[in-house]
């Protein structure tokens, strides 16, 4: 087994990981970013829509352009990026097992930033294993990255922002979205995204779910039905659609597998997709020297992931002595101001409070360790 030694190792070359790499490398740290994909950038290069919000958050700029700009900054910072490489183990001594190019490596780092993102949830129903049933993110990757249309007639399950945005992008790519189906009583995503879908003539069935998908060896049709307040199917409400593809946009789940290996503390926060690692205001987990950033800390969106990456990169670099206390404080204040702006308003309140809960839980955890109290 070959050995690689670095000061800061970052797992994940998405929006959070690249932002962390830029901040840490710019401060002077030796940084290595590891990603299992053949290309860096993560979700940003799938996002062809324009971001909105403030100038600081690239309002009016398409996601893939933001990704290109971020990647160029990382390359100029001196950070090294190891692609097509799988991190298969993360040990408590801050070492990790990596397979790259068929070679097994032991990577040892003083600090580790885990920015592994999130994975799509799935939903089981009769016919859910037929070819043509896929996650909305997979369909988005096929269309926007690989330039392959996943199907010609598509039904989308889920009306959150992912379901709405991907539906519109599939229509832009030439597919027909026959309907969007939502189990809840109302549309889950932003009105600006839902409005574009409705203006395009796509019906949105709230209070409905998929009853079954059918076809001989592939998707040929789907049957939906209304549900009551207990999510039971209402007999006689069934509707059928001729489709060749069914996309599932039913939520995301943080990819925390590597963090569980380290023994760091977790909390269960449904608003963030399930179990998430506790972290403090520096994005450091209960395991000293291991930081987190992006959707692995709780599912949000790309702008928040980039800011959390910035925060983790600054704090990790400071812990190694590359930034003074005053330099760190100034950068952290600027980053937190931008994060608070993102998490303000109706849609951000729940996420801001959930993040605060993680920090408070971490404080209690550290106090308990100091007092040697079992928690």
TrEMBL record:
Assigned keywords, A-Z: Oxidoreductase
Highest taxon in the source lineage: Bacteria
Coiled coil: none
Keyword Oxidoreductase attributed: yes
Membrane-spanning segments: none
Residues in FAD/NAD(P)-binding domain copies: 7-309
PANTHER family with a match to the protein in the record: ANAEROBIC GLYCEROL-3-PHOSPHATE DEHYDROGENASE SUBUNIT B (PTHR42949:SF3)
Protein name, as recorded: NAD(P)/FAD-dependent oxidoreductase
Organism: Intestinibacter bartlettii
Record lineage: Bacteria, Bacillati, Bacillota, Clostridia, Peptostreptococcales
